[in-house]
Design a protein that fits this description.
Length: 385
C-alpha cells in the first residue's frame, strides 16, 4: 500500500489503491524501462554533443570530411533516439510517479539530495524533449530563449543528474533484473504486454519520422515535419530567400563574389564562376533538425577558388552570406572540408540553376557537414591566415 501525504489521505483508501497501485508497477518494470531509456538517452547525448562540437569546435576536436554521409547518420540517430524516448520516458514516469507522494518526502540529508537530483533529471529530460520537438517543428515562439544554447546546457544537467541517479539506483536495478520473474498477472495487462506496447509506440514514432532522413522510408513519414517534396527542385527549404531578406541582392545582375586570400582579392561575376571548370558531387544536406536529402550539385571546388588567391595547404576558409543579421550568415570550412575536392561553391542542383530558396547565385555544399553550415547566397570567401 502507498502512504499518501496529508490532503490525499482524505481519499477513500480503496479509491487511493485504485489510483496509485497497479500490480504492473515494480522495480523490474522500472528497471527494464530504465535500461531502454538510458540507452536512447546515451545515444542522443553523444550524437548531440558531436553535432555541437562540429558547429563550435573545441581546440582538440577534429571532424573529417569523409565518409560524406556520416553526419547524416549521427544526426538522424540524435533526432530518432530523442523521439523514441518520448513513450519510454512517459512509461517510466508512470511506473514510479506514486513515489512523488511519499510522506515524509525524504528520510535524511542524503535522501534529500538524491530527490533533488531526481527533480533535475525529470525536469531536464522533459525540457530536452519539449524543446527538441518544438525545434524540429520550427515552432520557436513558445521558446523565449535561444534554442541551441538552452538545449546544449540542459543536456549537461541531464547527463549529470542521470549519472547520480544511476549511481544511486544501480543496486536496485541489478537486484530487479536478476530476480526471478514473478508469475504473470492473471488479469489485465502483463509486464511483458506493457513493455511490448511501449516498444511498439517507440517503433511507431520512429517509423513515422525516420523517413525524413532514411529516404526509402519516406512514404511512411507521416509525422516527419519536412516532406522531401516540400520546396523547389525536390529539396526541403529551411529558410527561403524572402525570409532571409536577400531576394533583391541575390537577383542583382551586378552581383560579384569576393574571394580573398594571401595573394589578393578576386571579384567574380556569375558568368566568371560558370566559366571555371565545373565539378559535380552527389551530397546530402543533413539538417540538425533530423531531415536530410541527397542531391547532385555542380559548381566550382572551394579549394580551386582558395588556390586562386594563394591559399597555403591546410588553410581554413570563411564563408559569408548576402544575408544580414542571422546567426547562419557566416560559416567556416575547417581544413579537411576546405581541401576536400567534393566541397563546392554550387551553382546548380539536380541539373538546374539553383533556385533562390536554395541559395542562388551560389551556395556551399560540403561532405559530412551539418546543413546549418551549408551557407546559402554566398557573398564572400576568405582564406584565413
Ligand atoms: N545564409 C543562410 N544559409 C543557410 C541557412 C540560413 O538560414 N541562412 N540555413 C541553413 C540550414 S539550417 C539548412 S538545413 C540548409 C538547408 O538548405 P536548403 O534550404 O537549400 O535545403 O541551408 C543552410 N544555409
Ligand atoms: Mo538546418
Amino acid at each position: 500500500m502507498v502512504r499518501l501525504p496529508g490532503p490525499l489521505n482524505r481519499i477513500h483508501p480503496a479509491r487511493a489503491a485504485r489510483l496509485f497501485t497497479s500490480r504492473l508497477r515494480s522495480p523490474q518494470l522500472t528497471s527494464r524501462l530504465g535500461v531502454l531509456l538510458g540507452a536512447a538517452v546515451a545515444v542522443c547525448f553523444l550524437t548531440g554533443y558531436l553535432s555541437h562540437a562540429i558547429q563550435h569546435p573545441p581546440a582538440w576536436f577534429y571532424w573529417p570530411s569523409r565518409p560524406v554521409g556520416l553526419y547524416r547518420v549521427t544526426q538522424g540517430l540524435h533526432v530518432a533516439t530523442g523521439l523514441a524516448a518520448v513513450p519510454l520516458l512517459a512509461a517510466k514516469l508512470w511506473s514510479v510517479y506514486p513515489k512523488l507522494f511519499r510522506w515524509p518526502p525524504f528520510r535524511d540529508a542524503a535522501h534529500a539530495v538524491e530527490r533533488l537530483s531526481l527533480f533535475l533529471l525529470v525536469a531536464s529530460a522533459l525540457f530536452q524533449i519539449t524543446t527538441g520537438l518544438l525545434n524540429i517543428a520550427l515552432w520557436y515562439s513558445p521558446m523565449s530563449f535561444f534554442f541551441t544554447t538552452a538545449h546544449y546546457w540542459t543536456a549537461w544537467i541531464l547527463a549529470g543528474s542521470l549519472l547520480i541517479h544511476l549511481g544511486v539506483k544501480l543496486p536496485v536495478v541489478r537486484r530487479a533484473l536478476s530476480a526471478p520473474q514473478r508469475p504473470a498477472a492473471t488479469a489485465g495487462m502483463s509486464r511483458r504486454g506493457l513493455l511490448t506496447a511501449v516498444g511498439a509506440a517507440a517503433a511507431a514514432i520512429t517509423a513515422a519520422t525516420v523517413g525524413q532522413t532514411l529516404r526509402p522510408l519516406a512514404g511512411l513519414s507521416v509525422l516527419g515535419p519536412r516532406d522531401p517534396q516540400i520546396g523547389p527542385q525536390g529539396l526541403p527549404v529551411n529558410k527561403s530567400a524572402a525570409a532571409a531578406g536577400v531576394t533583391a541582392a541575390a537577383a542583382d545582375p551586378g552581383y560579384r563574389l569576393e574571394v580573398t586570400g594571401p595573394a589578393g582579392t578576386l571579384r567574380l561575376s556569375l558568368a566568371d564562376l560558370a566559366a571555371m571548370p565545373q565539378h559535380t558531387a552527389v551530397l546530402p544536406i543533413a539538417c540538425v533538425e533530423g531531415w536530410s536529402a541527397t542531391a547532385t550539385w555542380t559548381g566550382v571546388p572551394i579549394r580551386e577558388l582558395a588556390a586562386a588567391v594563394g591559399a597555403a595547404p591546410g588553410a581554413s576558409v570563411r564563408v559569408t552570406s548576402l544575408e544580414q543579421d542571422s546567426p547562419y550568415r557566416i560559416s567556416t570550412l575547417p581544413p579537411p572540408h576546405a581541401a576536400d575536392p567534393l566541397t563546392l561553391l554550387a551553382l546548380r542542383v539536380n541539373g538546374q540553376q539553383l533556385h533562390p530558396d536554395h541559395g542562388y547565385p551560389c551556395r556551399i555544399i560540403a561532405p559530412n557537414r551539418p546543413g546549418v553550415l551549408q551557407t546559402k547566397w554566398v557573398a564572400r570567401i576568405e582564406v584565413l591566415p
